[in-house]
UniProtKB/TrEMBL annotation:
The keyword DNA repair does not apply. Pfam families: Sulfatase. The gene is Arsj. Residues 544-556 have a biased composition (Basic residues). It comes from Calcarius ornatus (Chestnut-collared longspur). This is ARSJ Arylsulfatase. Belongs to the sulfatase family. Residues 1-24 form the signal peptide. Residues 530-543 have a biased composition (Basic and acidic residues). Coiled coil: none annotated. It comes from the Eukaryota. InterPro entries: Alkaline_phosphatase_core_sf, ARSB, Sulfatase_CS, Sulfatase_N.
Amino acid sequence: RMVAAVLAGLSLLSLLTCGYLAWGSRRGGAGEAPGNLLGEEPAAGAPRSQPHIIFILADDQGFRDVGYHGSEIRTPTLDKLAAEGVKLENYYVQPMCTPSRSQLITGKYQIHTGLQHSIIRPTQPNCLPLDNVTLPQKLKEVGYSTHMVGKWHLGFYRRECMPTQRGFDSFFGSLLGSGDYYTHFKCDSPGICGYDLYENNNAAWDHDNGIYSTQMYTQKVQQILASHNPRKPIFLYIAYQAVHSPLQAPGRYFEHYRSINNINRRRYAAMLACLDEAINNVTLALRKYGYYENSVIIYSSDNGGQPMAGGSNWPLRGSKGTYWEGGIRAVGFVHSPLLKNKGSVCKELVHITDWFPTLITLAEGQINEDIQLDGYDVWETISEGRRSPRVDILHNIDPIYTKAKNGSWAAGYGIWNTAIQSAIRVNHWKLLTGNPGYSDWVPPQAFSNAGPNRWHNERVSWSAGKTVWLFNITADPYERVDLSARHPEVVKQLLRRLSQFNKTAVPVRYPPKDPRSNPKLNGGVWGPWFKEDEKKKKSDKSKGTNKQKKTKMKKK
């Protein structure tokens, strides 16, 4: 009887702590698994020493858009996972989708992959260079089963660029940067439209049931976990589409946000609420199927939020697509029973490139000396509270983006051309050159009206010719006091560091669009269009023709 009473108490407690989820799953929640997830016993068998790695990447989530950063949007799952794990409060990513994803999967800065300008467009014959070893490839070497669910956005013009050719055993998701959450269609420009949902290497027409992508991806994750043996290590990369535009969410998630007048903010809040519930369902599935006790869950946004699309980075400056802190400082945490300092905050410097060496080392893998990484193993920094091996971050050098008309070598003391968009962090100092992008501070009251309102935004005026900024980010994380005129020697030191990095850069890969990419030429589907065999056949034919001409000439 006592045992029964204790079990009943535990069951009641679990229902109370996850009550909103249980209610949601009864009404078609964000990816419900078959059967009751609560109170299930984990699968039998002692776990292997190699941990299960679950990497969850949100899309366009603003720095303020999580409960523990003071948001009005409720994120109970993220708050609980972060509180029981380690919050990363000095954590950096890149300002846009492709750059962050490429650096996560290779452990290299953009200047070392050729992807330092903008993103990979759907119509470009471009992808993550094939000579780069990827994180899933390294994990497969040491026995991991590797699966990706969600948004790829690392190029697909050739079959060799597809996720299943880059180290993943399976892939279910989208190839492009955005699309409709229900129909999975995407128009890159008028008349250039196609379907974008894949299972491995083929269009997933069978899954086109009008299911909201956040829920659909979560259901796929649960299926993978249910069918895999938890005694064998798994790497699960879940790259949710949410909360990237278009702003769409199932109606019931608006329930708590009717009071938000700004329609974009209201929709964004509903999307984030659905995402939070989905992540709760993923963690419940990890427990149900016997993975949790030997798992490492990493949560990260890929870049800052976009205020015009409902995201908030307050009190940071700037937005997605900029090198101000609002574009590159991200929500991030690690949750794992394997952490030594649970319930702590890590204020050491961590960058998205660090996950590559950190996770390979955790998985008992080897990093070859010929792979020149820009990331560091930061597991002891996160788990034990030790100092970070990282002292600097090259945020980027983009030699194509030279929109700062007044930039010059003279403004860069003859060390650097300040017309070039670049940003670097060394210890406490951060330097920006060129045109860093939209630089307003957007406070919460900016979302108080029905439409986008910039009257509440805080702006700073500077002379029209300014192309260099210096901040002490530790003392001034909101970038309010430019110190470039006060500390010219520091500016020169950081410019020299930029110059040193630039000497190691590879050429930029940013080809013009290819008309063969039009989905109309590919059965209405976005997908690989470049045929290597055809190119070889053409070259072989031309060689054969040339040989025939030569022999005829010799006979003559």
